[in-house]
Amino acid sequence: MIETGGWGGIAHYAWNLCNALRKCGAEPSLLTNVRYELDELPRAFRVERCFDGRVRYPRAASRLLARLAALAPDVVHVQSLVSTRFDGWLWPLVRRRHPLVITAHNVRSHENVRWEEWTWWRVLRAADGIVVHTRESAALAARRLGPAARIAVIHHGDYAFFLPGETVDRESARRRLGLATRGRLALAFGAIRPYKGVLGLIGSLPAVRARHRDVGLVIVGPLLVGSEAEYRRAIEGAGVADAVTFRPTYVPHAEVALYFTAADVAVYNYREVTDSGSLRIACSLGTPVVATAVGAFREFLTDGVSARLVPPGDAAALATAIGDVLADSAAAARMAAAAHELAAVSWSWSDAAKATLELYRAVARG
């Protein structure tokens, strides 16, 4: 299994899937980054640290080809690319030597960079099998790749592995994170990119605070697109500098659950998306959710039952939904419990691993 970054949502996904595959009788080897974030977690699979961002692409690709030749795997399963610009030639080459499965965690390009878009679809066309997590993703991939593509809808597993071994209450979580222990907190968690609508969420905060004066907003995650100054100007311009904690930095695995425990509501004001690992964390950890009715959110969440869903781009509806969740803690707890039940029952890593093994067998036979 290829996961090149060693950190973040795809690394978390690969760790859980490899453990589940091992329990199902497979023998996965994870080829990941030299700075593998989850190295200290117990695991049942083999890890090789063979990717390094300081190494130029030709050498990195040569190393990978050499390791695959030495391992002689039955199937190569790609979770993330070595380069979004140059992998268009690499994976068709790998496909000549090994059956190839690729997971399309996101079918759409977030920033619409044409070269990266071309690379991604060329890579997918080279695959013997493609894993997607939602029906919408499958439909998009089928339209682009044609009827000959082998596309398997295999659900994303839950993220209960973030739960700490100790019980931590909300006040303790806030104290450990250096957040205000009083008042209520909304959370925007994950990599910061334009399609996630964080600027729109900042703009809606004054309306939320007009109804609930004690509400603060925590924005935390690595800033991947845009500038810190842009977000700070938006916070100042909205007049909410005293209510916003802006932390444009990566959250290590051990601190993830603390942020969701500290929050009264997790907000996902996405413009569009095919799936979100961050939202699945909120569901798995039992944090109430307000999200836009886009992409996969409409497939696995039900408005008023497991989350509040609002139209994308509707700042007034977003502010109202956040305010409603904060105003009725009992209803918020019921929605969070329903989402947690969904994660615990329907997002089984064991089921995902069994379906993945079936796909492996199919492409190996082919």
Q: Care to give the gist of this entry?
A:
With 366 residues, the chain is an alpha/beta fold. Helices cover 46% and strands 14% of the residues.
Tell me about this structure:
- The protein has 366 residues and is of the alpha/beta class.
- It folds into 2 domains: 8-157 and 348-365, Rossmann fold (3-Layer(aba) Sandwich); 160-346, Glycogen Phosphorylase B (Rossmann fold), CATH 3.40.50.
- It is built from 14 helices and 12 strands.
- Strand 10 (265-268), helix 10 (277-285) and strand 11 form a beta-alpha-beta unit.
- Helix 1 packs across helix 14 (349-365) and helix 10 crosses helix 13.
- It is globular and about 60 Å long.
Task: List descriptors.
Rossmann fold; globular; 366 residues; 6-stranded parallel sheet; 2 domains; alpha/beta; 4-stranded parallel sheet
Largest sheet: 6 strands, parallel
CATH topology of the largest domain: Rossmann fold
Structural class: alpha/beta
Overall structural domain count: 2
Helix content: 40-55%
Shape, principal axes of CA atoms: globular
Amino- and carboxy-terminal Cα gap: 19 Å
Secondary-structure blueprint:
Blueprint: H1 8-23, E1 29-33, E2 46-51, H2 57-71, E3 76-78, H3 87-95, E4 100-103, H4 114-126, E5 129-132, H5 135-145, E6 151-153, H6 170-177, E7 184-189, H7 198-211, E8 215-220, H8 228-237, E9 244-247, H9 253-262, E10 265-268, H10 277-285, E11 289-292, H11 297-300, E12 308-310, H12 315-327, H13 329-346, H14 349-365
Parallel strand pairs: 1-2, 3-4, 4-5, 5-6, 7-8, 7-10, 8-9, 10-11, 11-12
Helix pairs in contact: 1-14, 3-4, 6-9, 7-12, 10-13
